Each structure stands twice: as C-alpha cells, then as structure tokens.
C-alpha cells in the first residue's frame, strides 16, 4: 500500500468560472491555459472563465476545457513535488491521465480532444440519442434491461461507475424504454442525463473511425507513470496499445469501478481527484471505505491537498 493515485474527471464536471482562480493565483495554471488557447487558436480560457454556459456545454468545448483545467491542477501539484504512482481518468479524463503520464504532449492533446468532441457530437444527430443513470440495480439487472429494451433500438451499458450506479446510452426511444423497465425492476432512480450525445455505446463507432485518423498524427510514447485504461481496467502495456484503447474507448463501456479496484490492487490508498467537480471522489468512496480521497480542483482544495502532503 501507500501508493498515490491521481484520477481525472470526465464530461459533466464542467462549470462556468472553472480555472479562473487558478489562473489568477498560480503561474503553472496560467501557462497551461495560455498554451491551450495557443494550441486551439481560440480562447478556451474565456469559455471556461466566463461561459456562456451553453457554449461550455457544447461537447466540442467541454472536452478541451476539462482537459485544460485538469492539466492546470496537475501542473500545480507537480510543481509542489506531488507526483502520483498511478493514474486513470474517466472518459475524456483518460487524456488528462495520459498527459500527466507524459505519454501525450498537452499541446497535441488539446486539439485532439476538441476534434474528438466534434466527432462524437456529429455521430448522432441532436435529440436522437440519450443517456441515463440507473441507481440501485446490479450489473446483471442493467444488462438484462438493456437486452429487453433493445427491441426499441440501440441501448447499452456505457459506464460502470461504482456499486449501484451504472449509466446506459443509446437511441432515445430505447433509453426511455430502459428507464421504465429499471423503475419496474425496483431501481432507486432511473434518470435521463443532460448530455448532447449517447457516449460510450456502439452508435459512436463513426466517431471512433474519424478519431483513429487523427490519432495517427499524434506522437504517443510509453507512459512514465502507469495508466489504467477505461476499456479493460488494465495498466496499458505500450504506446501502441494506447491508440487502440483510445479508439475503442469512444464506443465501449467505461469500467470505472474496475479501474479504481485495479489501482487499489496496485497499492493505492490515497486518491486525488485532479480537475473540476467531485463526482469521481464520490465513486471511490462507494467502492472502498479504506482509502483516503482528496480533491484538487480549485485554489482552496489544491492548497488543502498540498498541505496534506506536507507542502
């Protein structure tokens, strides 16, 4: 034990104003936000700091915004000598993890995830797909519900977040049918999510094909820190595997609970959620009561985490 894990959030963690206090208070954060603006040739920093919310919620902006904010937080921790032993990120957070592990350069990752966001948005016309969170049912029950509801169209398990929380994705009609079935089955909650596309299901295969072309243009090297992959909850073996996993990740379920357990098996007993929001912290606490969970998402939480490590 006594290993440190960094975990990086996915889409849904964004909020207007994210990163502004970091930019004002830490030179490392300023450098990252300025680098993102330069790499994108547009002010993603302005969208993070000022919104408007509907612009930040556009997937094409959300994904580079979360990557930039998470990397800014990571750069501050690193400057204070806090380096993880193992990393993972949920969905878009996997790119933040790969940047932290020095597998992908930040200036290449930012435009890449912007394109990823665009491809994912274009794969299914707005309103035709959806996602829902199912709370209080087992993995087997959710898979059975998806199987029955699939007569209405595509619907699949998309995120296995933690015990009792699974997200489904697919065609809108089929997702609605699965929600009703989940309620009949006794789910504590079955609620549609405010997302612009059905991520991590087979409807995203066209996006994955376009992403594979873009990934060929990016330099990916072997990680300097072990990275646990979303698609199989295993430590990625090589830079070649990373490209394959990132392509598959677009249309495959995210095995987040298994990723956390893999990090615990590795010896991690302190988890730091690096970036906006606290959703992953909540998942980790539900997965294990035996680990310490910290946050590093704004000036206050960063300072608390730095203090925890004696900084």
From TrEMBL:
UniProt key word Oxidoreductase: no
Residue span(s) of domain Malonyl-CoA:ACP transacylase (MAT): 7-298
Keyword Acyltransferase appears in the UniProt entry: yes
EC number: 2.3.1.39
GO molecular function, one term: [acyl-carrier-protein] S-malonyltransferase activity
Family according to the record: Belongs to the fabD family.
Residues the record marks as active site: 91, 200
Pfam families given in the database record: Acyl_transf_1
Origin species: Tepidanaerobacter syntrophicus
Name used for this protein in its record: Malonyl CoA-acyl carrier protein transacylase
């Amino acid at each position: 034990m006594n290993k440190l894990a960094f975990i990086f959030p996915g889409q849904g963690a964004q909020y207007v104003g994210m990163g502004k206090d970091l930019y004002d208070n830490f030179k490392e954060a300023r450098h990252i936000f300025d680098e993102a603006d330069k790499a994108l040739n547009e002010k993603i920093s302005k969208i993070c700091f000022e919104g408007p919310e509907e612009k930040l919620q556009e997937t094409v902006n959300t994904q580079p915004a979360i990557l930039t904010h998470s990397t800014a937080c990571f750069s501050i921790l690193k400057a204070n000598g806090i380096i993880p032993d193992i990393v993972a990120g949920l969905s878009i957070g996997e790119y933040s993890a790969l940047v932290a592990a020095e597998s992908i350069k930040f200036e290449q990752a930012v435009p890449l995830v912007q394109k990823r966001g665009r491809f994912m948005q274009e794969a299914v016309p707005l309103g035709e797909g959806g996602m829902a969170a199912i709370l209080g049912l087992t993995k087997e029950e959710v898979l059975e519900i998806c199987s029955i509801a699939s007569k209405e169209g595509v619907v699949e398990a998309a995120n296995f977040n933690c015990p009792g929380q699974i997200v489904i994705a697919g065609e809108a009609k089929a997702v609605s049918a699965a929600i009703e079935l989940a309620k009949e089955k006794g789910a504590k909650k079955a609620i549609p999510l405010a997302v612009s596309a059905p991520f991590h299901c087979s409807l995203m295969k066209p996006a994955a094909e376009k992403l594979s072309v873009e990934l060929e243009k990016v330099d990916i090297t072997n990680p300097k820190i072990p990275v646990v992959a979303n698609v199989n909850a295993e430590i990625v073996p090589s830079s070649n595997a990373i490209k394959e996993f990132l392509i598959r990740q677009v249309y495959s379920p995210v095995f987040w609970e298994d990723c956390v357990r893999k990090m615990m098996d590795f010896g991690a007993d302190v988890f730091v959620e690096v970036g906006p929001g606290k959703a992953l912290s909540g998942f980790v606490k539900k997965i294990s009561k035996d680990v310490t969970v910290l946050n590093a998402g704004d000036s206050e939480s960063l300072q608390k985490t730095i203090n925890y490590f004696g900084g």
